[in-house]
Amino acid sequence: MDLPKLAIAALGGTVSMQAGNVGEGVIPTVSGETLLASVPELTLLAEVTIETLGLLPSASLDFEFLLSVLSWANFQIKQGASGVVIIQGTDTLEETATFFDYLWEHDEPLVLTGAMRSASQAGADGPANLLDACRVALAESSRQRGVQVVMSGQIHSANAVRKTDSLAVQAFSSPGTGPAGLLLEDRVRYLRPPPLRSVLPLPIQTTHRIALLEASLSADSLLLESILGLGYDGLVIAGFGAGHVSGNWAEGIEIIAREIPVIIATRTGSGSTAHSTYGFKGGEIDLTRRGAVMAGFLCPRKARILLWLLVGCQRQNELASLLSQD
Asked: Is there a catalytic annotation at residue 14?
């Protein structure tokens, strides 16, 4: 029986890290091919193609590099791959997943994974996560689900997943919704049907910039007032509570929103922004009247990615309608 084709890209991250000398910090050195050799079971599941596209900590990834990775993944599907797996660092895993999900137009799954323990640590979780991610990418039930993150035996949808612990092995969760599925006795089990997705065209420009600011107690407005002068093309604010800012920030946002799109998200880590509850100056009703758009359940970091993509394909006028779906 012919095995399905599976494509894997390694970008670096903790899963690829080890220390050169005792007492030194770990750095990315382990290639994708070496990682694959640590999971011999994969040869029984699929005909695997693996490429090392980078050896970077995920904090050093950028949008243009991710577009090149996306191009690679699209080519693998055209070559007959049943699914694609990307291995990367966990620091920006939730953001990368969201970036790809807005652009992934295929029924075939794109699955991201990584590790919380380095390749040289006792109990390294990278091989198990890679094997799980490959099982998810090969499962027929994973089709039409867009981009997913697989970590610690759980499957998370790109739009919901967040890194909620800095160092724990069980670092990823989906606040408010829970995981989309689980791996149970090596079987892929989904807990709900595929979600509705909005796929965007590739950006036609990549030099634009989107700022992200966080509201905090007694914060001055100097950075906020500098946004337009610095040449930013959009602004996301991680607001208090259900999407609120101080009164003086509200005045600055009104001026900015006349020129560029402004999104207000919540900094809390879970839950949605409000729409029609708070009427004080700096509340969501006031901010909406001043021209800002509320992010709903989309977290500030993911809202920034959405806005960057929309501005890049000149569809920022669709921002409010897309956010109303989240």
From this structure: yes
